[in-house]
Amino acid sequence: MAELNAVVAVYGTHAEAEDAVKELQRAGVDMRALSIIGKDSHTDEHVVGYYNTGDRMKYWGKAGAFWGGFWGLLFGSAFFAVPGIGPVLVAGPLVAWIVGALEGAVAVGGLSAIGAGLYGMGIPKDSVIKYELALKTDQYLLLVHGTTAEVERAKSIIENTRPVNVTVHTAETTAVTVK
Questions:
Q1: Residue 87: pLDDT above 90?
Q2: Rounded mean pLDDT of the chain?
Q3: How far apart, in Å, are the Cα atoms of 37 and each of 111, 148, 172?
Q4: 99 is in which domain, residue-wise?
Q5: Helices (DSSP H) in 27-167: which residue ranges?
Q6: In terms of DSSP bridges, do strands 77-82 and 86-91 run parallel, antiparallel, or are they unpaired?
Q7: Nearest residue to 36 (alpha-carbon basis) of 111, 103, 115, 95
Q8: Does some domain include residue 1?
Q9: What pTM was estimated for this model as a whole?
Q10: Spatial distance between the Cα atoms of 78 and 93, rounded to a whole number of angstroms
Q11: Is 1's pLDDT higher than 50?
Q12: How many degrees, rounded to 5, is the angle at CA 122 between CA 83 and CA 27?
């Protein structure tokens, strides 16, 4: 990730986020450049569990099919308990940024570990705060990282998947909110 460019889309439901991932995959977007993050929304009525099998995480629970599909599709997966947000599941390269922030004891004033990971990959702090709020309100974040051209292409695909909003973050410019 030499270039810190990303398009970040916020979705209201896991089904909407999943549809967007499928559209990106159909369009040939490199799945190794895609990250998804959302709260673990289990209830008392559903048993929830996690386990590792080699290099893959397995998930049981209310949204098990949703998250289970991403563990094999995307590069990297993790479960974090984030104070102020709650249990969060992450799949994709964002995991490495979050772990890097945690291991490097990066403290970015007022941001969670998730926020520090987003900030570390080049997302401005004011946007990170918006994304943390989206997670707190049970929304899902879909990120595509890459060159400026790759991010612009992903944005054009994402715009047709009815996200709550879409924001492009580039190394050269500030955030540009599309919707």
A1: no
A2: 76
A3: 16, 22, 25
A4: 6-177
A5: 64-73, 94-103, 113-120, 125-136, 148-158
A6: antiparallel
A7: 95
A8: no
A9: 0.77
A10: 10
A11: no
A12: 100
Buried b (16+ CB within 10 A) or exposed e, 67-89: bbebbebbbbbbebebeebeebb
Those residues with Cβ within 8 angstroms of residue 2's Cβ, 6 or more apart along the chain or in another chain:
none
Under a CB-based contact definition with an 8 Å cutoff, are residues 72 and 96 in contact? no
The two structure tokens encoding residue 41: 């929304």
Task: Assess if residue 129 is contained within a domain.
Answer: yes
Sign of the alpha-carbon dihedral angle for 132, 134, 140, 143: negative
* Residues contacting 3, CB < 8 A, separation 6+: 146, 147, 148, 171
Check if the beta carbon of residue 7 is closer than 8 Å to that of residue 167.
yes
- Is the model more confident about 76 or about 133? 133
Interaxial angle between packed helices 148-158 and 14-26, expressed in degrees from 0 to 180 and rounded to the nearest 10: 120
pLDDT in tens, 63-83: 444 444 444 555 567 777 777
Indicate if the pLDDT at residue 145 is higher than 70: yes
Q: Is the pLDDT score of 58 beyond 80?
A: no
Task: Report residue 24 as tokens.
Answer: 């990106």
Residue 84 falls in which region: left (phi positive, over 0), alpha (psi -120 to 50) or beta: left
Whether residue 57 lies inside any domain: the answer is yes
Tell me how many domains the chain contains: 1
Q: Is 107 inside a domain boundary?
A: yes
In three-state secondary structure terms, 78 is: strand
